[in-house]
Amino acid sequence: MGLFAGGALVSCSKKSSGVGAAITDEVVHTLSALSPGTTFYWKVVADDGKGGAAESEVRSYGTQ
Prior knowledge:
Layout: E1 2-3, E2 7-14, E3 23-31, E4 39-42, E5 45-47, E6 53-55, E7 59-62
Parallel strand pairs: 1-4
Antiparallel strand pairs: 2-3, 4-7, 5-6
């Protein structure tokens, strides 16, 4: 098992109260040199900034 150590990390936030609002802030960071034959696990945690949070299921991907 490995922690997320490669691929692209994307963080974005919406600064609007309307449905379908445009994303106003986005950060992308790409990591390289993934080890072959390794499984990586990840999940998304959304924080609304008012004490509420939601988490996705844990997902995984493997390198060949």
